[in-house]
Amino acid sequence: MKIHIFQTKEALHQAVAERIIDTVKQNPSCVLGLSTGSSPIDTYANLIEDHRTKGTDYSKVSTFNLDEYVGLPGSHPQSYRYFMNQYLFHHVNIPLEQTHVPSGIGDLEKECETYEEAIRKRGGIDLQLLGIGTNGHIGFNEPGTPRNSRTHVTRLLKETIAANARFFSGEEEVPTEAVTMGIQTILEAKQIVLLAYGGPKAATIRNAVKGPVTEEVPASVLQTHPDAALYLDEEAAALL
Ligand code: GLP
Predict the structure, then answer these.
(1) Is 65 an annotated catalytic residue?
(2) Secondary structure of the chain: what % helix, strand, coil (to 5)?
(3) What is the pLDDT of residues 51-84, one digit of tens each?
(4) Which residues of the chain have pLDDT under 70?
(5) Is the alpha carbon torsion for 171, 174, 178, 183 positive or negative?
(6) What was the ipTM of the complex prediction?
(7) pTM for the whole thing?
(8) Is 126 a catalytic residue?
(9) Would the CB of 133 count as within 6 Å of ligand 1?
(10) CA dist., res. 108 & res. 201, Å (int)
(11) Domain boundaries, given as residue ranges, for the chain
């Protein structure tokens, strides 16, 4: 795992955005794996600004998001489809039909299979962006998720529901299940970039980087990936 540490959040977001832009420039038909949560919002803002000022072209790019809440349609303001449209897709020239976010409604078993199939058909993910939950989850792969898991429906742990309640009007509004790419799906990406900042993530980052590779800390599997990099601010890196 490569570790990049930045003095400011701004520098961190700029570096992650530059890495994504380089990937798109090198391969205009690349496949990007994208994430939600508060962490990537400013990275996406950098992509939008670069597109506006320098015209980086997304017309042939495909994207696959990590996850979606079960029960929320894409029109729901807290759905991850809505988030992606709002924070990125509506502001760059990517055709919406080339953007994929798992559906959290309908036949979910079928949705999981179709999602894996769609990733395969496009030749796999070139660069997967990740955040990290304070319990070490990546996507919505909670502690205990098997290493060989693929896109599946998962039950969210209490701590994740509590952490994500800040985006809803209350904890009881947070869906209890989600559709998420599995650990194995994530590990098959050619490059992985995880970004994290702030003191509350420091212990999680230490466990993921310095602890054993264990299903109890889902992000620790990144230690086994040949091209995974962590982009951290000094606070998130404080315990390394
Ligand atoms: C959610 C998402 C994760 C994300 C995590 C961290 O649980 N499913 O993909 O990494 O939140 O969120 P934040 O970036 O807001 O700390």
Answers:
(1) no
(2) 40, 20, 40
(3) 999 999 999 999 999 999 999 999 999 999 999 9
(4) none
(5) negative
(6) 0.95
(7) 0.97
(8) no
(9) yes
(10) 31
(11) 2-233
